[in-house]
Write a structure and sequence with these properties.
Length: about 210
């Protein structure tokens, strides 16, 4: 399990828009590589996007994939909220976090809704023909995970519940990070002249 903190720090609304776009690209790339992703986002005060997000990656390729996203992410585009603003470069930071400080407690059964579904990924044709994938939803928070790595529905169910408990714990941790302004500390350490990923234009195309 690899955890990435993605933050716009003290950046304006445009940086939060960039964060939401960057996380969407990250999730799509991970999914294409068969890397399972769990996601919890911070508060979105004005509809432009959250100030931070915690991305949890699972799988043997997660470490190498995370390295491609750790550092500064630059978006070059006119401001979508301030059309006459001269600034066109907006920055987001992504930093590796350590493992959770403690093992998360199992979630009470009455707080979880379990759904089965057909999904692609490891398992090939057999998995696509049977509803072996499991989606677990934490009712109090709305957080959800999908486990599809195993051929057995029961094993995917156990995996989904384990990952959901960790995600709920990460959600609480993300709130604590925001409260103690650790996200801003990460953002302040960014090397804005050396972005690891660059995107451009309203479509957020890779540069």
């Amino acid at each position: 399990m690899i955890r990435l903190l993605v933050t716009s720090g003290r950046g304006p609304a445009e940086c939060r828009i960039a964060l939401a776009k960057a996380v969407a690209v990250l999730v799509a790339e991970a999914d294409a590589l068969g890397i399972a992703v769990d996601l919890v986002t911070g508060k979105d005060p004005d509809g432009h996007g959250p100030g931070s997000a915690l991305v949890v990656l699972h799988g043997t390729s997660a470490d190498a994939f995370a390295r491609r996203w750790t550092g500064t992410i630059q978006w070059t585009a006119p401001s979508p909220v301030r059309p006459h603003h001269k600034r066109k470069n907006w920055f987001v930071g992504a930093a590796r976090l350590g493992p959770p400080p403690e093992t998360p407690r199992p979630i009470a059964a009455q707080e979880v809704r379990i759904e089965t579904l057909r999904a692609g990924g490891p398992g090939g044709q057999h998995q696509n023909k049977t509803e072996s994938a499991v989606r677990a939803v934490h009712l109090p928070t709305g957080l959800a995970v999908v486990a599809r790595e195993e051929r057995s529905q029961s094993r995917n169910r156990a995996l989904a519940l384990e990952r959901l408990a960790a995600l709920v714990k990460s959600g609480s941790e993300l709130e604590a990070i925001a409260d103690r302004q650790s996200a801003q500390a990460v953002h302040d350490q960014l090397e804005r002249g050396r972005p690891i990923r660059r995107f451009r234009g309203p479509e957020f195309l890779p540069d």
